[in-house]
Amino acid sequence: MEIAEKITESRIFIIFLEDEKNNVIYSRYLNEPNQKNATELNETYKKFERQMIVRGYLKKTIEYEARRFDKKIRSAEKEKTSLDKVVYGTEIAISELLIDGKSTTAYETIYHEDLSQIFEDVRLAEGVANLTEKQREVLYMFYILELSEKEIAKRMNVTQQAISKVRKAAIKKMRETIK
Length: 179
Prior knowledge:
Structural class: mainly alpha
Order of helices and strands: HHHHHHHHHH
CATH class of the largest domain: Mainly Alpha
CATH superfamily of the largest domain: Winged helix-like DNA-binding domain superfamily/Winged helix DNA-binding domain
Strand content: under 5%
Number of domains: 2
CATH topology of the largest domain: Arc Repressor Mutant, subunit A
Number of helices: 10
Mean pLDDT: 79
Largest sheet: none
């Protein structure tokens, strides 16, 4: 009874022989190749093979569960962004940076009431006063809030081209008033 050369040179068989007990069983078989030693080697090797299969299965299962757990944790962290966290590089909490849609800032109050308090140049204040509410709103969002035309269009439920047209008309109207 001989062991095929293909098996003895395989990676798994080499790993099998790294264990001292397995190496002794294999050496015993090589010195006395009888049925008893062959059966012992065969049984030991089959047991080792099953253990390797189980280890491989467990390794893959653990890797899969670790990835799933990591994904779940990251997903939960995205959902739980704390508004009390401080913005990097500042002492300001995220909640302090949020603007309530119903509240008005001091600038907006002045903006709608007395434009001469905002602009030092009276002609510029007159130019803004001559604009329509929509033109003022577009210029405010574009220059003060620094929103893009696309973002303004989305907020006002119109196309970007419409916002561009309103902005250009407002600037043209202001230039005419200032001249």
